[in-house]
Amino acid sequence: MGTIGELGEFALIARLTRRLAPGPDVRLGPGDDAAVIAAPDGRVVATTDLLVEGRHFRLDWSGPYDIGRKAAAQNLADVVAMGARPTALLVGFAAPPGTDSDWAERLYDGLADECRAAGASVAGGDVVAAPAVTLAVTALGDLGGAAPLTRSGARPGDVVAVRGRLGHAAAGLALLTGGRAGPAELIAAHRRPEPPYRAGEEARSHGATALLDVSDGLVQDLGHIADASGVRIEVESSRVPVPEILGPDGLRHALTGGEDHAFAATFPPDTVPPPSWTVIGTVAEGAGVVVDGREPPTGAWDHFPT
Amino acid sequence: MGTIGELGEFALIARLTRRLAPGPDVRLGPGDDAAVIAAPDGRVVATTDLLVEGRHFRLDWSGPYDIGRKAAAQNLADVVAMGARPTALLVGFAAPPGTDSDWAERLYDGLADECRAAGASVAGGDVVAAPAVTLAVTALGDLGGAAPLTRSGARPGDVVAVRGRLGHAAAGLALLTGGRAGPAELIAAHRRPEPPYRAGEEARSHGATALLDVSDGLVQDLGHIADASGVRIEVESSRVPVPEILGPDGLRHALTGGEDHAFAATFPPDTVPPPSWTVIGTVAEGAGVVVDGREPPTGAWDHFPT
C-alpha cells in the first residue's frame, strides 16, 4: 500500500493510530496536543529510550513487528524495575519517506502487543521523516502508593536474586553476527526479549530493597546497585542460571550480555524470594561486584565505544 | 574537552546531568531505571516529539543552546495547550560519537533554561550514538484538577483569539533560506520560539472552550479545532496581528507559518479574552476554516512532503 512519504503525515498517523487500542489508563488518546494518562498514585514513573537503526536493531536481522515489541519491552521493563505498573507508552517514530507503510503498521502492531502483555497501551506520539529508522519510546507507570524500588536500597547481608533469562539475547546476537541462523530460541531472544513483567510486583511483595532491569549485562547492572547503595555485591557463578543452550560461552553471556531485560533485586537477609527468582549471591560491605571472589569478566555495553 | 565518543556513555551522562537542576516536581531524577515525577492531579499530561538534524534544525543555522531551547519549547507548549502546568521533560539525545562534548553540554543548558522559563525541569533521559543529531523530547504536565482543554470544545458563536507571535519563525526561516542574516528579530524567532507559557492558565480562567498551540501554521491548526469540534472557523485577516517587520509576505507568514508556538483558543460568545489575546474571528456552523469568507492560502507543514 505504498510508502509513508506517499501517504503523508496525517494519513500515516491515522493509519498507525488505528492499530492502537487505548487502554483504561488512557484518559485522552492520540489526536490532541498531548495525551492524558491516569496517575492515581499522584506521582508518575517515566522513562525514555532512543533506538536507532544499525545500532540498536538491524533491519535485515529483525522484522518490524519484533522491533516494535522490543522497543516497547525495554521501556516497559524500566517502569517495572521501579516497582511500578506500566500504564502507557508514547512513541516517536522517524523513518525515511520511502519506508513501506505496511512495515510501519507492523511496527505499531508490535508496540501495541507488547504494551498489552504489560497491561499498558500506546497513548500518543509523533511521526517524522529521517534518514534512519529511529524510535523514541517513553513509558509511564504508576506506583500504586508504594515507594519506588530504586538502586540505592541494598544493604550488607541482603541476598541477590534474578528473575528472567540471562545471556540469551547476547548469545542470539553472537549467532547472527557469526552468520548463523540457530538455535532459533536464541535468535528469537535477541529479536524479542520477554521481560517477566510481574517481577516488580513479586519483588515488592517480598520486601525487595533494590531492583533494576538487566539491560547492559548482569555484572555491569549489579555494579549500578553496588555504586548507588554503597555496597559490594558477591556473585557465585555456580548459582547463575546458565542453560545448556547458551553453549560454551554460556556463563560469559549470562554475566555480561544485556538486552534480555531480566530483573535483578536485593532482598533483606533470610528472605526466601518468590519461586520464580534465583538467588545468585549476597550483599557485603565494600564496593563493586565480584564473581567467585574475583574481578568479573568485562564486556560492558557502552553506547559510545571509542 | 573532546568528543562524546571519547568520554563514553556514562561520563557523558554524568556531565550532562550536572547541567540540570531537578525542580520541585521531580521526586526522583536521573540515575535510576526511571524518573518519578509529581502528578498531584491524579492524571498526567504527556506529549513527545522527535527532532532530527537537517529536518527540524540545521547545525549551521542554529547553535546547540538555541536547539535545546527550541526542542524543549515545542513540547512544553503542547502541555500548556492542554491547559496544564508543565512539570518535567525527558530527553533522548542521539549524536555522532565525534560530536564535541561542549556542544552537547550547551544543548542541555538550553533544555534546562527553557524548562525553567516554563516552571519545569529535565527529569531524565537517554544518550545514544547515531549518524545524525536527534532529540526525542517528552514533556509532562499537571492539570491541577481541571478538565483538559482539547480541540473539540469549540461551539458556533464562540470567539477565536490568538496569543503570541505568528509568522515570525517562518519569516526568519525564509530569510535564512534566502541567505540573509536579518532582521535579527526574525532570525532569532526561527532559532528560538518564545511560547507565552501563561496562555493556558489565561485561556482557562476566561472559560476557553478549545485551545491548541500553533505549530503547523494558524490556518492549518485552526482546522484541527474545526475538525475536532465539528464547526467552521471564520478568520478576518484584518484582525490577525501582522507587524510591519514581517515584510510584504507578512499576512501569509502569519496565516501559514508554524513553529512560533503561539496559542489559539475559542471562548464562549461575548467573552472578552485577556488583554494579551487578540480576537481574530468567530466560530460558525459548518466545517473548515475560511479567511475573509474565502478558502485560505495553503502552506501546510507536512513532515513527509512527497
Automatic annotation (TrEMBL), chains A, B:
Mg(2+) 4 binds at D33, T47, D78. Mg(2+) 2 binds at D49, D78. The keyword Transferase applies. Mg(2+) 3 binds at D33, D78, D213. One of its GO terms (molecular function) is magnesium ion binding. Keywords: ATP-binding, Kinase, Magnesium, Metal-binding, Nucleotide-binding, Thiamine biosynthesis, Transferase. Residues 31-141 form the PurM-like N-terminal domain. Its EC number is 2.7.4.16. Reaction mechanism of ThiL seems to utilize a direct, inline transfer of the gamma-phosphate of ATP to TMP rather than a phosphorylated enzyme intermediate. This is Thiamine-monophosphate kinase. It comes from Actinomadura spongiicola.
